[in-house]
Request: fold
Amino acid sequence: MRILITGGFGFIGGRVAQHLANLGHQITLGTRNSEHCPTWLKTAKVAKTDWQNFDSLASLCKGIDIIIHAAGINAQDSVLDPHSAHQFNGITTGHLANIAAEEGVKRFIYLSTAHVYSNPLRGAIDESTHPINKHPYASSHLEGEDAIRNVSLRLPIETIIARLSNIYGAPASPNPQCWSLLTNDLCKQAIERGELHLNTSGNQKRDFLDMGTATEMLAFLCQMSMSPKKSLTFNIGKGNSKSLFEMATTIQNRCQVNFGFTPKIYINEKNISEDNSDLIFKIDRIRNAGYSPKKNEVSEIDNLLNFCKKHF
Reply:
């Protein structure tokens, strides 16, 4: 299939592109900058994305079977500029889906976030759980979700909303700004400092999603049958949570296995009473659709640690 990935040079977009290319798909990397084909995916096409030019977006969509919309305003920038988050994550996403449908794109996969549900995530969460998070990152993604659903009601295109949990892993290149993510940051700390510092007590639970599993799940969404549905929403996660301290301990153990040293873990005892509610991020819907996981978190952490050792 011919697949366009917006934000194709980014953290998630780059890894998804590599995985789909390895499966034999023809990949186009959408980017705001006119760049040469990256060394990490020499078989890809590169297309400059002018988000303000609808004719340019229509040209970008021509001949494409599936769009994976990974471009977006991140959580930190959404706080700094909520208007831009609303404009891009919400309105521009809808414009792109509408143009894609008019150009004959068969399927539009929108990478949303599990954080639309609440902050922090707690309790049992499935796709029917009512989203209540008012953070501009979450609310702007909900706007994007609503926009593409509306497109699928009016035009002949299938839309999939993928609500990703707390993803981590090695990027395709050192460039993406992914080092504020907890697991990525801890692996970088381990290599650079030989220590692991948590800003919290480490009690909070998260559904940590390794990038290998995430790329598998998104590849499954590209090829799965949707008939007779035209729009579906999926939780994309591991389906089992662990505390931040447990993740730090896993990284500590992998440092010992891979490099022969055991970084000490430091916690912030001032936050010892922070929320440590149980979290069950349910992924039954995608499992029932036929997905079965193959990757494991240990290999992704090992790859991430080795990436950090090479580049930092």
